[in-house]
Design brief:
The chain contains 11 helices and 14 strands. By secondary structure, the chain is α/β, with parallel strands linked by helices. It folds into 2 domains: 285 residues, Zn peptidases (Aminopeptidase), CATH 3.40.630.10; 113 residues, Alpha-Beta Plaits, CATH 3.30.70. The strands form 3 sheets. Strands 1-2-4-3-5-13 form a 6-stranded mixed β-sheet. The chain is elongated, with a radius of gyration of 23 Å. Bound molecules: zinc ion (2 copies).
Amino acid sequence: MVKLADDIEQARASALAAIDAANGDLRDLSLEIHSHPELAYEEHHAHEVLTNFLEGRGFAVERAAHGLPTAFRAVAGSGDPTVAVLCEYDALPGIGHACGHNLIATSGVATGLALAEVLGEGDGTVVVLGTPAEERDGGKADLIRNGAFDDVDAALMMHPGGQSPQMPPGSVRVRAKPNALHALTVRYSGKNAHAAGRPWDGLNALDAMLHAYGGISLLRQQMRPSARVHGIITEGGQAPNIIPDRTAAYFYVREDTVDHLEELKPRVVACFEAAALATGTTLDLTWEGNPYTDMQNSTPLADTYEKWAVEQGMVPVEPEGAGAGSTDMGNVTYAVPGLHPSYSVESTAGNHNAGFTAAAGSEEGHARMITASKALALTLVDLYSQPELLAEAKREFDERAAARASQ
Ligand SMILES: [Zn+2]
Ligand SMILES: [Zn+2]
């Protein structure tokens, strides 16, 4: 096999041809995951079909990798550098694949197949990394802790989204700006009493919850425009004629950067504490799962992806002012140089909306994913064949890390 860099045009053509040749199988794989939605850390079916698929295509597959039962590591090629393409495959409660993670999984596989086709002996290693639990608890942070990125030089993935006036179908936001996020649960413990007969004997845990909810609503006026604090009450009492002695809630606190998030968190905690004081109840507050960081987009990777996205007919759009959602891919960009472009598909329903579930299973959505994956495959061909590109990405990554350390 010739070295990748010796016939780069042929390598590019072969990478794209490998995706085209697998298109029907990739569509089946995507629909198989789409029709079996599984929640965070429970993605056993997706784990099985993805690992079987990659093994059948010649990848060396490690199931239940890095200490997580539904993570996997599928490797092709040999030598340096090692580039990881990330798959996500968890769904949302009640509305299935409303974030299109079936497309993310399939895109990771498509890109991996393309590179496996063209990486000659010693040209480099491609890792298709299966990453559980993006929608909750931040599984990629577990993977980072367990060493999944220790031998990885760069990591890339993409995310589909609904259309908007700023992002018509076929457009791509190369540099995503997700928020840093930390989730928390709270529980108030009070004292039951007959709600009509002897209410003065009770300590009302629902009053505490509403007091906190109202306090956060008032605090919102003083938050930065980039802040988002939102939650649900998961336990609100037993019956109208019982003063509730137990209530519980699940909240997210988000900000545009990790630093802003750390500034906001104690102010939100104060709202919960104040409510306990005011109502005589007891507060139990727990920060849940892994915190999600903001994203450090690698400039060389972004510029390269943008070039190939345009070549594939996609239209780049600028990032929004304030980040929309949050993703644990942000955490990965603090571990290695990384990139997470978002591309739009034909759907007026946005992510986390049942309408988007249909788009994630549509022919059109699949075709958009294939186009975006081709741009990603061509980006990787550049990364493997142009050592200075990866060196520049590492230089920027190290400079940012040094700047943070000196703050
Ligand atoms: Zn998602
Ligand atoms: Zn999502």
